[in-house]
Amino acid sequence: MRLLPFLMGSLLLGAVLPAQAMPAFARAYKQQYGYMPSCNACHTEGGGTALNGFGKAFKEAGKNDATFARIAAADSDGDGAANAAEAQGKANPGDKASTLKQPGNWLDMASLIPKEVQARFPGILTWMPRDAILTPADIATAKSMGATLSAADENTIYVPVKDQHPAGTALIFPVTFQGKTGFLLMTTDRALKITGVSVLHADKLPAAKSSKVYASFNGQQAQTVPAPKGSDLDAAITTAVKNAGVLLYVRLKGA
């Protein structure tokens, strides 16, 4: 299976037609403030990770175009400046370290790729993040493949590029067990064969750090991870990995 060699054309089209590639939040943010934000506007460590203060405020206030006005006067990151003022000044309203006087590099391409993702692909200098927006057809296809996805699973696929060709993928995604959520990182080669699954953040789900199930995914095709048996933590992790793998396949298979 050679899915990713075809990905470059679609990624290049994304550079020409960004409105079709951005997540709903990013599209709304750009319409409101005139520029494309980093995933770090809402997430602590890039797309797929936990929400920061601004992300939580945006979610709790309705997650639509009108939400920006509702949270404009709030100071979600506690740095003394209102959300709207920071956004208009190209500072990150979700990061206390990014201020109007010193906005930092949160909009640079290098800052768009979580450091943990970069560490999985040493030597890679070029990245092409691809936003995975799930259509009803995608969700139906995923269901036929044994995965349960919804529009809420919209995510960012990180694609490392070497010698002008995709070198694999990386995806950050949540795993929930008994009401507690942690975040995992999955990497694949260019044919979507899993090269690693590991814990990214699991402060609220510490047991995930000691699970032995991660090694069992290595070498499997991302879209064919078997459904788990049972209802323990390992089963929850396997379900999360299966859903993430199918998401990768569904979004990249037609590229």
From TrEMBL:
Residues 1-21 form the signal peptide. Keywords: Signal. Residues 79-98 are annotated as: Disordered. It comes from the Bacteria. Residues 79-91 have a biased composition (Low complexity). This is Cytochrome c domain-containing protein. The lineage of its organism: Bacteria, Pseudomonadati, Pseudomonadota, Gammaproteobacteria, Moraxellales.
